[in-house]
Every structure is written in structure tokens, then in C-alpha cells.
Amino acid sequence: MKKKIAIFDLDGTLIDAYNSIYKTIDFISEKIKFKRFDYETVKRSVGGGDQKLILTLFGQKYLEIAHNLYRENYLKFLPGNVKLLKGCVEILNELKNRDIKIALATNRSKFCVNSLLKEAEIENYFDIIMCADDVKNPKPNPEIIFKILQTSNFKKEKSFYVGDMDIDYETGKNAGVDTYIVLTGSSKKDDFLKYKNPLIFDNLIELKKFLIENQLI
Q: Cis peptide before 138, with omega less than 30 degrees from 0?
């Protein structure tokens, strides 16, 4: 069945902005005299939104002060610290050329999403953008997918969702939409062994090839 709307996660799926997050976290650690985290620890902690990230790393005791510092300073660390992931522009262009709507479903907050997209120079590709602020329940709750489908007026059978983490896989499956995983983010292939036959691709180039070969777009 040909799809009419493609829904993408942001971090680890379309862009690599981990360095901007890491530098912000390192700044906070220094500011509040907390222990320093290594890059991989920070990278593996993303995906649930900035508040959950801060809670995971700094704990409840420092949640308020660290979260405020994150919101106040994150945008300073964006310039030069956002990269497009392999195949990002290629798949977005392919979808646009085939007149398929493109939506963004991210646990990121609105305060930074537009800046991230502008830094990556992909802000003009999206027909619908849904952030953590737009829903009551963040991913892996399927609310964000349902809201996108409601806004676009497409049924779930006409959509697919692309992410890079186990919470993305669960989000798509909870929503009942075709779900694809790319291994360009913070999750490894072994993280998906607990699921039954997930469709996993090395990158967006491989996913684009699969979508075309199977006449899904």
C-alpha cells in the first residue's frame, strides 16, 4: 500500500546533535559542581525529552536547577554542533518529489526544535511538526503519532514512522503504524532483540531503497 505521510523522529534519525547536548550537560556539571559525564553516557540518555535527560543524569535533587540551566543555555551550544545523518536530505527529497507529506514527531521541546532544524538547514521539509509540548504523554505513548494523523487527516495505514531507539519502535507499534528503525542514533542492534522481527536499517539510504523497492512510496 502506497503511503501518504512519513513521520520521523529527529535526534539520531535525521540529525546528530549529540555534541550540543553533551556540551550543555558538561556546562551544567561545571556550573553546579556536579560530576562530569562522558559523551557516550549522555548520548545513551537522550530520547525522552530534556527533563527526563536531566533527571536521569542529575537526579531529583538537582532537577529544577539543572533543567533551568539547560533551557537557558542549550541554544548557545547549537552553532557548529548539528550534523545531518547519512541519507537525511536524500530521503526527504525523495518523499517531497513523490508528494508525500512529511511530519516530525520529537520528544524535544519547542524552545529548541526550530533552531535545530534551521541549524541543520532542513526546516522547509516538514508539513507538520509535533513536539513534547504538543502532547500530554511523550513517546513511547502513541499520542504524538495519533495527533499527527488527526492533523493530516490520514489513516494510520497510509503512514509510516522512522526512529532510532527502542522507544521509537514502541511508539510506532503502540500507534499501529509501520515502523522502521535506523541504526544512526544512540541505540544498538542488540537493543531490539527483545522485539519480534523489527525492520532495522543501517541508515536512511537503505530505508529509502527499501521503501522504493517495496512500492511503499
A: no
The CATH number that applies at residue 88 is 3.40.50.1000
Q: Locate 40 and state its grid cell.
A: 557516550
pLDDT along the chain (217 residues), means of 10: 96 97 98 96 92 96 97 96 97 98 96 96 98 94 98 97 96 98 94 94 98 97
Pair (208, 146) in one structural domain: yes
Task: State how far the Cα of 106 lies from the Cα of 67, in Å rounded to an integer.
Answer: 18
pLDDT of residue 1: 86
- Rg of the chain (C-alpha set): 17
Domain end, chosen from 77, 92, 124, is at 77
Longest dimension (CA), the chain: 55
CA 40 → CA 43, 48, 49, 77, 127, distances in Å?
Answer: 5, 16, 17, 18, 33
- Residue 47: what pLDDT? 87
Is the domain of 48 the same as that of 132?
no
pTM for this entry? 0.94
Residue 87: predicted pLDDT:
98
